[in-house]
Amino acid sequence: MENLDYNVLLYYCYSEIKDPETYREEHHLFCIENNILGRVIISSEGLNGTVSGLKEDCEKYMEYVKSDPRFAKTEFKIDQMDKHAFTKIHVRVKPEIVHSSLKHVNPNVRTGKHLEPEEFKALKDQEEVVILDVRSNYEHELGRFKNAITLDIDNFRDFPEKINELEHLKGKKVLTYCTGGIKCEKASAYLLEQGFEDVYQLHGGIIKYGMEAGGEDFEGKCYVFDNRVAVDVNKVNPKVISKCHCCGKISDRMVNCANPVCNIHVPICEECGWKYEGACSDECKEHPEKRPYDGTGYYQKNTNGYNPYKGLYRKPDKEKIKSIIHE
């Protein structure tokens, strides 16, 4: 039986941080000292992260985050793994904790009504209810709720540009959803701002829905932003909906194009994987920089020269760096 000694944590919290740079420094050091890897974004509006570590280290990390009064309300979605889901730790300060083009929106002031997974499940099929996916194309093409409305957007920051396409929904109950809930906080708030009156959001997103409500009627897999790439959600009535980028056959086998210049992440069936040697097209197959294909379509990033202490004021501990890099 697999030893699932590691956890993957997905979380966010909208809460004012008056000095993001100072907090970034403190947070970064805590991650290094407790062997936490992943990506954390900090801004004046809060924090957003996906990290991994041994279970006991993740417990310390969650306690550390929630012990700060500003982030006491943070909810963590916890998954199990047999290893780290990341190879590095990056803690960065950015203008927003999710790039949205909606910096003026404060979800702590007004946002859509939160629905717990079981509440969402009970409401989603009722009359005059529509389900709105606020994620990007590559995410909802891999998996989405049955009968959900999807938007043709490459990035969440394009969401406001699509609001006119949703005008006909103003008289309905609009249930928004995303991966972990963070995009819905601003998307639902923006819908309210634009005159939509009955707006809800799936609290904890697809991930929490899968954990607490069995994932019923979520078709396909959920795209995640770590080395797992895609995770199963539906334990009730699963269905594969994504198609091979090369031949169009039903497939949810996610592959990074072997051409590092292209590097798109798309479903490619096993047959086409070998036919194109891990590339997404004949052109990429012939590219002089194409990486060797081992049948997985996953390419470990080179950690040479990686220094987890980069950007910190404290002097690096060489042994600590070595242990983190070679975890």
TrEMBL record:
The keyword tRNA processing applies. Pfam families: Rhodanese, Rhodanese_C, UPF0176_N. It catalyses: uridine(34) in tRNA + AH2 + O2 = 5-hydroxyuridine(34) in tRNA + A + H2O. Keywords: Oxidoreductase, tRNA processing. Residues 125-218 form the Rhodanese domain. Catalyzes oxygen-dependent 5-hydroxyuridine (ho5U) modification at position 34 in tRNAs. PANTHER family: RHODANESE-LIKE DOMAIN-CONTAINING PROTEIN 7-RELATED, THIOSULFATE SULFURTRANSFERASE/RHODANESE-LIKE DOMAIN-CONTAINING PROTEIN 2. This is tRNA uridine(34) hydroxylase. It comes from Echinicola arenosa.
